[in-house]
Amino acid sequence: MKKTLPKYYPLIPVFAAYLIMFIIGFSMPGMWQMVALLAFYCALGQSWNIFMGMTGYVDFGYVTFIALGTYGMSLGITYFSQYEWLGIGIIGIGILFAMFLASLSALLEAFIALRLRGAYFAIACIGINEGLRHFIEGAKIWGGSEGLIYYGALVQALGRTTVNQLTSFWADFSVFIIAALAAFLNMYFMRSKIGYALTAVREDEDAAKVMGINANKYKTIAFLTSGWLGAGVGAMAWGLKLGHVYPDDVFVIHYTVECIVVVLLGGAGTLLGPVVGGLIYGLSKYWLAVIMPGFQLLIFAPIIIIIIVIAPEGVVGLLKSKLKGTKLEMFIE
Amino acid sequence: MALLKLENVTKRFGGLVAVDKISLEIKEGELIGIVGPNGSGKTTLFNVISGVYRPEEGKVIFDGKDITRLPAFKRAPLGLGRTFQIPRPFSSASVRENVAIGAMFGTLAEKVTVDDSLEIADRYIDMVGLEAYRDKAAGTLTPVEKKLMEIARALAMRPKLLLMDEAMAGMNPKDIDNMVTFIKKIKDEEKIAIVSMVEHIMRAVAGLAERVIVINQGAKLVDAKTEEALTDPRVIEVYLGHSKDESKWRSEVWKEVKNKDE
């Protein structure tokens, strides 16, 4: 136990960033929406990065988890809001459903897709995502393509004041919590046997197996954790906040691409990277949408290309190499 | 009791029989040399023992347990460590982390924490003499340093049997002599059995092994005490040519060619 604390130093800048964001959003009027958006990108980046950064696998189907999280919350509220005595507990049931669906999908994907490597893995994940969407629409489960609308049910069960508080503050606040939790878990994994095992698997899977490492087990742990966190973000930021869900809105690869951009901008496999990437991406998207509505993606593409050319390891990767040998080194991971 | 026992192990790749009904026994604390020309099936044999391949026929018994069908990652914790012909370091990780990974998932897997493993790693890094490179990324080492790092990594697993695949290939005679002394030293200090595979460096085999197993075309040719094995006419035939008459004929042809060139 003697050396446990110093190892977690790199969490300090991450938590500090989240705290500053939260204080700005909470105390300055009109800033909450933007801060919530930033927290959303940071949380997604951080959750996606746990799996990608540690295993080197690029999960193009990550939005599946976010979508299933949203559906989990929707189902929880839709089917349990009629039991009045449950009260606020229906949110808990929604979270449980979200975790359950995410676990199911993660284990299924792990069983099928984690046996594949490189581009084949990415394609398989996209396939599972698209397949699931068409399945929901085609088999007409969970409302099919018409989706589920449960805002009314939520108001009826909990009352308008509570629901307003939930959707305007607590949903966003829990995204902050998920982002912080993701950072902590990422750090914990990096410092534990899981991190060492995944480093070995990433570098040379066959050699790792001969060294006694159960590659599939450790990959599944990282995948499942990453999926749970993604489902948590979906359940809160979409499921609870919006009060409705349509398959066409949630199974959108666009969000996976945003995760990838956030992480690559900040620095893949680093702890601070998703925060920095989330801030850069979120702020510039927000700002460009204000000053040049409609053109933001056109302007954003070259900016991303320039950053990736200048700093292929991401902003944090660049920072890390600049700080090497200085006292600040131990705070950046 | 034999530590490792192979019974009629056969491994085929399509029509090619890479390992052909090989049976052998290795006792605890033995130092064995496996020799054979290029392509004779030595590395395949190693891969069958360490679990990279599963044999089509036969049994692999380690420490009294049938491990023929056991996946590779379950064999390491039983006490099977190995190095690779072409070193396979975890390049981006430091030497210390590489060796610690060995300690973390080897026979001590259930007992050690990350911190313990790093301490064990330091011990073996000192043993192979890589102290100066402790925090360097393993990918930046020279090939010889990578081989030493792999030995440290395999030793940190605290195996009962260490399989060394061509530990001395590409080294100069001085390094080979050092390596031979070193392997003998670790065998005595760690009290483990070592199987060292050597393609053709007879200098190394003669100085190193107590017993030599010669493999040719996938089958076991000779299994005897080192001196006996290396002077066996069949072994000489495999390495130097066919019968006496033929080699005489060859040397004459060679002389003629040389004379013409001059």
Structure description:
The complex is a heterodimer of chains A (about 325) and B (about 260). Chain A has about 325 residues and is mainly α. Chain A contains 15 helices and two strands. Chain A has a two-stranded antiparallel ribbon with strand order 1-2. In chain A, α3 crosses α10 (about 215-240) and α12 packs parallel to α15 (about 315-325). The longest helix of chain A has about 30 residues, at about 160-190. Mean pLDDT of chain A is about 90; it is low at about 1-5. Chain B is globular. Chain B folds into three domains: about 1-80 and about 165-220, P-loop containing nucleotide triphosphate hydrolases (Rossmann fold, 3-Layer(aba) Sandwich); about 85-160, no CATH class; about 230-260, no CATH class. Chain B has helices spanning about 40-50, 70-75, 95-105, 115-130, 145-155, 175-190, 200-210, 225-230, 235-240, 245-260, and strands at about 1-15, 15-25, 30-35, 55-60, 65, 80, 160-165, 195-200, 210-215, 220-225. In chain B, the strands form two sheets. Chain B has a six-stranded mixed sheet, with helices on both faces. Chain B is built from ten helices and ten strands. In chain B, a hairpin with a 2-residue loop joins β1 and β2. By secondary structure, chain B is α/β, with parallel strands linked by helices. The longest helix of chain B is centred in the last third of the chain and has 18 residues, at about 175-190. Classes of the chains: A mainly alpha (about 325), B alpha/beta (about 260). The interface of A and B includes residues 3 and 193 of A.
